[in-house]
Amino acid sequence: MTLLKSDIIFKIYDTLNQGQIDSIKTTEGPLLIIAGPGSGKSLVLILRTLYILIEKKAKPGEILLCTFTEKAAYELKERIAVSAAKIGYKKDLTDLRISTIHSFCNEYIKDFRHKTKLGNNFDVLDDLTQYFFIFEHFDEIIGNKKNPKDKYLGKWKNKWTTIQRVVEFFNKITEELINVDDLITSADGFLIQLGKAYKKYNDVLFTENKLDFSQQQKVFYDLLNDPDVYNQITSGLKYIMIDEYQDTNYIQEQIFLKISSNMKINLCVVGDDDQSLYRFRGATVRNILEFKDKFPPKMCKEFRLLVNYRSHKTIIEMYQKFINSISWKDSKKGLQFRHNKKILENKGTKFAEYPAVFSIWGFSKSDEGARVADLIVWLYEKKVIKDYSQVAILLSSVKHEYSKHYIDALNLKGIKIFCPRARNYFENEEIKDLIGCFVFIFNMYDELEKELENRESDYYQYLIECLNFLADRYPHGTTMANIITQYYKKIKNLNPSSTTDYSLIDLVYVFITSAPFLNYLQKENSIRNLGIFTQLLNIFHQYYKYNIITGKNREGLKRSFFFSFLRFLYEGGINEYEDEFNPIPKEHVQIMTIHQSKSLEFPVVISGSLNKRIMVRKEIDKQLSKFYHRTAFEPLNRITEFDRMRLFYVAFSRAKYILVLSTETEPKDYFKEIWQGLPQWPYVQKDILKILDFEFEEKLKLKKIFSLTRQVNIYETCPRQYKFFKEYEFVPSRSAQMLFGTLVHETLEDINREIINGDKKLITDLKIEGFHDFNYKMLLKLGFAPINPAQRKNALSQCLNYFHENYNDLDAVQDAELKITLERPDYILNGVIDVLRESKGGYEIWDFKTQKKTSDKNILNKIHRQLNTYAYLLKQKIGADINKLAIYWTNQKQKTDALTEFSYDESLISSHINKFDEVVDKILEKDFSIIDVPENKTCNECDLKKYCLTIGTIKLK
Question: pTM of the predicted model, to two decimals?
Answer without folding.
Answer: 0.89
